[in-house]
């Protein structure tokens, strides 16, 4: 065969590459240009210009962030000032870090991040507190920018010129469980978190990219979500405590009276067990972050349980497949002897044994056992199948009050309902469609802590 001819396999490979590079409205012109000596690689949208004055004021407002775990470099990204001493960036940049530094686009002096003040895990945002270093806040666009709006981002000056990279907004929609703009601008991973400006120099949000339908697409987390995050800021906490509570916080959590899950169908009061402190602290941490706000009760199985806490349900449409996304981490199993799945118990779901040999639990999803009553014959069969032995107390409870004995010993139980089981029962009776999702959405409005 002539060397100028392609095999079918080669042709398919070239076609796949072309789709990957040209996905989400990108053109063949929009590819990374090889940098000159000493310059950093920056994507060229085909509409690159320079500016000496009008964008110069933003150089001290845009920061480059580097994160560390006990001195080991983890990630590099960008963010920007939204208040005198507050910086917003992507949460994934900080996840797992116990230290972070930043510089600005016009100054290589390193400054420290003192801690974090608010987190939105679902939309991948975190609000950071500086060590006292101040910057000029960038103005956030207050609404949803129209499709077709022209967009600009800037990169580090080369000499006295500021490279500007132009594009436009293609869409505003749900992307992998979160809301985002799709844009024609292109961004490199080290630049994720940069602000994308409109022509009036307000920012529409944070830039990033993801693979969607086998194509690399470019997105922006909306400024409206950043504004909401700023409203939820708390006292600064150490970066090391982003995913776990310190001893003082854990001690405080052990003394809380309970929590109230406010749903569309009524309130459910719960308490969390001190016998499972990691699960208790994790649930309270997510509650304080407002993580559960507006999430669906996405799984309802009559005679078994109701389930919520999936990150991909906040913006879910009627036909979306949900329940596959958590907060980005799992928890080790903690099976406490004496705790069993009687009616009203709260536990943590997990992936099947074939994919999860250590029984690790989802980091945010939880279920409430509504259950049913069982006969001795049914309990005997479960014992034989699962190689377990129910106590006399367990048998009495399962025969009179009810529960879910078939999952005892394999799922972590970390709390129980103390009031509002009638609400859980009403939810458990709603009509469901495929994957046990209720036909009519039922949401958690919020979860409130009872101090």
Task: Characterize the structure shown.
The chain starts with 7 loop residues before the first helix and ends with a strand. It is elongated. The chain is built from 8 helices and 23 strands. Mean pLDDT is 90; it is low at 1-22 and 25-42. It folds into 2 domains: 1-32 and 40-242, Beta Barrel (Thrombin, subunit H), CATH 2.40.10; 243-450, Cyclophilin-like (Cyclophilin, Beta Barrel), CATH 2.40.100. Strands 16-17-21-19-22-15-14-23 form an 8-stranded antiparallel sheet. Strands 1, 8, 9, 10, 11, 12 and 13 form a 7-stranded antiparallel sheet that branches. It has helices at 8-22, 91-94, 223-231, 247-253, 277-288, 376-386, 392-400, 421-428, and strands at 48-51, 62-69, 72-83, 86-89, 99-104, 107-120, 125-130, 150-154, 162-175, 178-183, 195-197, 203-212, 215-222, 258-263, 266-272, 297-301, 305-308, 330-331, 345-348, 361-362, 366-369, 412-419, 444-450. Helix content is 17%, strand content 33%. A hairpin with a 4-residue loop joins strand 6 and strand 7.
Q: What's the structural blueprint in terms of helices and strands?
A:
Layout: H1 8-22, E1 48-51, E2 62-69, E3 72-83, E4 86-89, H2 91-94, E5 99-104, E6 107-120, E7 125-130, E8 150-154, E9 162-175, E10 178-183, E11 195-197, E12 203-212, E13 215-222, H3 223-231, H4 247-253, E14 258-263, E15 266-272, H5 277-288, E16 297-301, E17 305-308, E18 330-331, E19 345-348, E20 361-362, E21 366-369, H6 376-386, H7 392-400, E22 412-419, H8 421-428, E23 444-450
């Amino acid at each position: 065969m002539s060397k100028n001819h392609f095999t079918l396999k080669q042709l398919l490979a070239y076609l796949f590459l072309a789709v990957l590079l040209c996905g989400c409205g990108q053109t063949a012109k929009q590819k990374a240009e090889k940098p000159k000596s000493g310059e950093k690689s920056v994507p060229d949208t085909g509409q690159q210009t320079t500016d000496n004055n009008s964008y110069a004021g933003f150089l001290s407002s845009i920061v480059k962030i580097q994160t560390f775990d006990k001195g080991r470099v983890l990630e590099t990204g960008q963010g920007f000032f939204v208040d005198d001493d507050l910086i917003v960036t992507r949460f994934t940049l900080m996840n797992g870090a116990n230290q972070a530094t930043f510089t600005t686009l016009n100054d290589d002096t390193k400054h420290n991040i003192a801690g974090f003040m608010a987190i939105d895990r679902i939309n991948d945002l975190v609000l950071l507190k500086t060590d006292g270093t101040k910057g000029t806040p960038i103005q956030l666009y207050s609404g949803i920018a129209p499709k077709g709006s022209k967009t600009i981002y800037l990169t580090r000056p080369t000499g006295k010129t500021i490279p500007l990279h132009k594009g436009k907004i293609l869409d505003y929609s749900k992307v992998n469980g979160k809301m985002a703009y799709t844009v024609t601008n292109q961004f490199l991973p080290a630049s994720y978190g940069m602000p994308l400006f409109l022509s009036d120099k307000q920012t529409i949000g944070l830039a990033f990219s993801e693979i969607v339908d086998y194509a690399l697409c470019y997105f922006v987390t909306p400024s409206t979500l950043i504004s909401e995050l700023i409203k939820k800021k708390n006292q600064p906490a150490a970066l090391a405590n982003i995913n776990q509570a310190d001893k003082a916080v854990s001690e405080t959590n052990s003394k809380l009276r309970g929590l109230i899950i406010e749903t569309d169908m009524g309130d459910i009061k719960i308490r969390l067990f001190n016998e499972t402190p990691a699960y208790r602290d994790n649930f309270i941490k997510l509650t304080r972050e407002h993580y559960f706000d507006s999430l669906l009760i996405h799984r309802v199985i009559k005679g078994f349980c109701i389930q919520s806490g999936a990150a991909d349900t906040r913006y879910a449409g009627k036909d979306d497949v949900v329940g596959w996304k958590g907060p980005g981490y799992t928890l080790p199993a903690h099976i406490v002897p004496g705790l069993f799945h009687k009616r009203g118990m709260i536990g943590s779901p997990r992936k099947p044994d074939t994919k999860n040999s250590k029984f690790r639990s989802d980091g945010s999803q939880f279920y409430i056992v509504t259950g049913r009553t069982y006969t001795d014959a049914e309990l005997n069969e479960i014992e034989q199948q699962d190689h377990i032995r129910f106590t006399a107390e367990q048998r009495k409870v399962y025969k009179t009050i009810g529960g879910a004995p078939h999952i005892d010993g394999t799922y972590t139980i970390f709390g129980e309902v103390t009031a509002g089981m009638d609400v859980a029962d009403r939810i458990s009776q709603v009509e469901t469609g495929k994957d046990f999702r209720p036909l009519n959405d039922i949401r958690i409005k919020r979860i409130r802590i009872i101090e």
